[in-house]
Write a structure and sequence with these properties.
With about 40 residues, the protein is mostly helical. The protein has a domain of about 30 residues. Helix content is about 75%, strand content about 0%. It contains 2 helices and no strands. The longest helix is centred in the C-terminal third of the chain and has 23 residues. The radius of gyration is 14 Å and the shape is elongated. The relative contact order is 0.09.
């Protein structure tokens, strides 16, 4: 799984920084909002 690869690649760094969390939420919203608009309309 991609998540496991990412987790293994950051062994030295535990958890996510606040910036990484914000970026990941932004990417998810950018991907999901158009899909949601297509479904709702």
């Amino acid at each position: 799984m991609l998540i496991n690869k990412v987790a293994k690649s950051r062994k030295s760094k535990k958890g996510f920084t606040l910036l990484e969390v914000i970026i990941s939420f932004a990417l998810i919203s950018i991907i999901l909002i158009p899909i949601a608009n297509l479904v709702l309309t």
